[in-house]
Specification:
Strand content: 15-25%
Shape: globular
CATH architecture of the largest domain: 3-Layer(aba) Sandwich
Number of helices: 11
Distance between the termini: 42 Å
Number of strands: 10
Structural class: alpha/beta
Order of helices and strands: EHEHEHEHEHEHEHEHEHHEH
Length: 316
């Protein structure tokens, strides 16, 4: 339906976690979007194949976006822009937060994703911590400044979230083997919405594990899903049709949780697979919890690993 700018290796591997399955007493599989083969991997590359092509089709020479200091999207966007000969400009804050949910300041021990964003030539403009709305406003100001400087700007939402991003995961669902339950991290909404809509007519439960304390997150995901359904010609799901679990966020967005740390170490020791502290570790902590409580018994479970491994070198 849409043309793409090829970036990633796909289909990404999908395999059974033998030791983890035995330890948890479930049939557990993993979808390895940490192995997309592009800019140290991660699910954002799927979106960017569509988003970069859309920017090129518009005649853009500059892409502006925003994110947290350890944004996986900014890192992969920077790489994609370098390949496509586009300028990448990003507004970032150490820890943007939801009003009323300001979180403890994380002491970063390394630069992680920042090293790669710099390597790929992104122009990173840093701002003091504020709300997500403050960050979005800073990005809008940057986009306007770039236009005033004579650049043709394509402005991308945080995380590249939107109909095209969700479409990438609607298509990616074809890569998934049989499963009863699919569990993945959920934040800006494209991954969760795309997979949910792809499997809505099948007896497959898609569970999104919220990594963000935003009260309106379910509605945000539903809005992305509605935009996807508009281009597919489908009736959109209502917000309450999305299975979004908010029990595993921990102290807040961008702050590692105790349960996530346990999950990160557990999977590393069981399978030699690395998770990231912001998204995939929190999502996998839900897998551990649900399995230990017997809620995944007699089901084939697919964990969709969204990547983000470079952040390990900033948080540890």
């Amino acid at each position: 339906m849409f043309s793409t700018f090829p970036l990633i290796l796909k289909p990404t591997p999908c395999h059974r976690l033998e030791r983890a399955s035995e330890a948890l007493g479930i049939d557990l599989w993993i979808k390895r979007d940490d192995l997309t083969g592009f800019a140290l991997g991660g699910n954002k590359g799927r979106k960017l194949e569509y988003l970069i092509q859309a920017a090129l089709d518009e005649g853009a020479d500059t892409i502006v976006t925003c994110g947290a200091r350890q944004s996986n999207f900014v890192r992969q966007l920077a790489a994609a822009c370098a390949i496509a000969e586009l300028r990448c400009v990003a507004a970032v804050m150490d820890q943007p937060y939801e009003p009323g949910h300001q979180v403890p300041q994380v002491q970063f021990t390394g630069r992680g994703n920042e090293v790669l964003s710099d390597l790929f030539g992104a122009k990173i403009v840093r701002f003091e911590n504020g709300s997500w709305e403050d960050l979005f406003a800073r990005a809008a100001d940057l986009a306007e400044s770039e236009r005033q400087s004579g650049h043709v700007v394509h402005h991308l939402a945080v995380g590249g979230s939107g109909a095209l991003g969700a479409y990438a995961f609607f298509v990616a669902a074809d890569e998934a083997p049989h499963h009863d339950v699919l569990i993945t991290a959920s934040s800006s909404g494209s991954t969760h919405a795309g997979l949910h809509i792809a499997f809505r007519d099948f007896p497959n439960q898609v569970i999104g594990i919220a990594c963000d304390p935003e009260e309106d997150l379910r509605n945000e995901i539903a809005r992305v899903g509605a935009d996807l359904c508009a281009i597919l010609g489908q009736e959109p799901p209502s917000p309450d049709e999305y299975d979004l679990r908010s029990d595993y966020v921990g102290p807040g967005y961008g702050v590692p949780s105790e349960a996530g740390e346990e999950a990160l170490q557990w999977l590393a020791h069981q399978e030699g697979i690395l998770l990231d502290p912001v998204y995939s570790a929190k999502a996998f902590s839900a897998v551990l919890d649900l399995a230990r409580r017997g809620e995944l018994e007699d089901q084939t479970v697919l964990f969709w690993h969204t990547g983000g491994v470079p952040a390990l070198f900033a948080y540890r």
